[in-house]
Amino acid sequence: MLASATALALPAGAQGTASVATDSAVYVERITRETNRRLEPARRLVRGDRVVTVVRWYRMGGDGGFVITNPLPASLAYQESTNERQEVSVDGGRTWGNLANLRVGSRAATPEDVTHVRWRIPASSAARGQGEIAYAGIVK
To answer: Residue 127, Cβ neighbours under 10 Å: how many?
Structure first.
């Protein structure tokens, strides 16, 4: 079973002084005849389940933008994010970029290689005081 993900929020640069709290929840996608697609809290997961992790952020003070970094559980293969500003890492958070541009050794990186996801929240979005970002994955 996947535990709730843990996100880390840091100022976007030396200028940023934002104080941010995060929490997250993991949901499993269920396909039904009546509703076609439904998200349920993840209580029990099996290989092949599609899960959606929702990371909520809350500005506690300060100003400027910030970065939210979320490690992926080893049992989850990354699929997609709901935010186009998302970057991924395939090396434990040392380097970042668009998945299509990353490599693992001599081969192109795959969704199964993703170890972390991060989002840069600009000052204009951070000024709202709260927000959420979601990403999907498949249980390995």
So the answer is: 13
- Please identify which residue in the block is written with the tokens 């079973």: 1
* Number of domains present in the structure of the chain: 1
Per-run averaged pLDDT (10 residues), the chain, 140 residues: 50 60 92 79 91 92 89 90 85 94 95 93 90 93
Domain membership flag for residue 15: yes
Rounded-to-integer distance, Cα 30 and Cα 12, Å: 36
Domain of 47? 8-139
Pick left, alpha or beta for residue 123 (phi over 0 → left; psi -120 to 50 → alpha; otherwise beta): alpha
What pLDDT does 14 receive?
40
**Does any domain span residue 86?**
yes
Contact between 25 and 41 under an 8 Å Cβ cutoff? The reply is yes
